[in-house]
Amino acid sequence: MKTTFRLLVGAACAFIVGAAGAQNYPSRPVTMEVPFAAGGPTDIVARQIAQAMTKPLGQTVIVDNKPGAGGTIASEFVAKAAPDGYTILIHHIGMATSPALYRQLRFNPMTDYEYIGQVVNVPMTLVARKDFPANNMKELAAYVKANSKKVNLANAGLGAASHLCGLLFQTALQTEVQTIPYKGTAPAMTDLQGGQVDILCDQTTQTTQLIQAKSIKAYGATTPKRISSLPDLPTMAEQGYPQFEVMIWHGIYAPKGTPKAAVDALVKALQAGVKDPGFRSAMDKLGTIAVADADVTPEGLRKHLKAEIDKWTPIIKKAGQYAD
Predict the structure, then answer these.
(1) Percent of the chain at pLDDT exceeding 90
(2) Are 120 and 45 in contact (CB under 8 A)?
């Protein structure tokens, strides 16, 4: 009886201490895991929002890069991390495509996380090395179809935004080209600028300044309307490819079971962060599109993630590209 009593008292004390810890959250820095290489488009968003969330959260948000396997390494790491609010994940559209791409996925995007909210929408741009022969989309389509066996298309790995955009590119042209996967678009962009690869489909957070500086060639934006920071760049729809449309959205997640007090604090910090003038200014310069207030919520992210899973699963299955 005494043993049972001691166990009950111990469990009660542990609960009280845990609850108190959650109420005092955060008492130390929070680590934001990024599934891709430093310097890439998702990393750029992560560092900007981490900085913007620091003040409202009252603690530093540290960015940690865990690239590889199309973003699944970092996603699994966070799914299995201690649910205390001190390890969170920022991920893009890849969170919705991983269930269809990976046969042996070791986490479930719909059940293994607490949702914090969406961060920002980022358009994609189709670009090439600056000395690529084609000067516009019409010339690019003709050149790729005539030289499909020697043209190569870089991406950041299976399931990455650049990979998905690349699938749409090949579908739009009804032509397959050689694809070269990297561990992130930052190294892919380095090789594109160096002339080692031909074409890349990448987010405006990484391409805008390079396009403006004419370090790379740009052929089109994957948005319904032209991008404000690149007003002279036509959309793919304008050039006869209405089906070539994709927007890369980003969301923040915490491990399942994270205390409500911690989740609420992260949600409030994110909501303040996306409205931070410094964050908005940085994102505007990179051609991103702000998300609606209703999407910067746990329910907004959950609904969007489910809709995106339903959208991309049949597209990926039709393409027949999987990873073990």
Answers:
(1) 76
(2) yes
- The Cα 179–Cα 98 span in angstroms is 19
Q: Are 109 and 251 in contact (CB under 8 A)?
A: no
Q: Which CATH class is domain 28-121+248-319?
A: alpha beta
Q: H or E element: which one contains 190? A: helix 185-193
Integer angstrom CA distances of residue 42 from 48, 141, 150, 221, 281: 10, 28, 30, 18, 17
Per-residue pLDDT for 8 more than 70?
no
Band of the pLDDT at 191, cuts 50, 70, 90? very high
321 within 8 A of 164, measured Cβ to Cβ:
no
Helix, strand or coil for residue 121?
strand
Q: Sign of the C-alpha dihedral, residues 82, 83, 88, 93?
A: positive
Residue 217, pLDDT score: 98
Q: Angle at CA 51, nearest 5°, toward 62 and 39?
A: 70
Decide if pLDDT at 9 tops 90.
no
Whether 145 shows a pLDDT value over 90: the answer reads: yes
What are the DSSP calls for 103-117, one per residue? TT-SS-TTTSEEEEE
Average pLDDT score over the chain: 91
Could you tell me where in the chain the CATH 3.40.190.150 domains are found? 28-121+248-319
Q: Which letter does DSSP use for residue 70 in this model?
A: G
Q: Which residues in the chain belong to E strands, given as ranges?
A: 30-34, 61-65, 87-91, 113-129, 152-155, 178-181, 199-203, 216-221, 247-255
Q: Phi then psi for 274, rounded to 5 degrees? A: -70, -15
**What is the pTM assigned to this prediction?**
0.82
Domain with CATH 3.40.190.10 in the chain: 123-221
Q: 251-306, pLDDT tens digit by residue?
A: 999 999 999 999 999 999 999 999 999 999 999 988 899 999 999 999 999 999 99
Pull the structure tokens for residue 201: 């489909």
Topology of domain 123-221, CATH: D-Maltodextrin-Binding Protein; domain 2 (3.40.190)
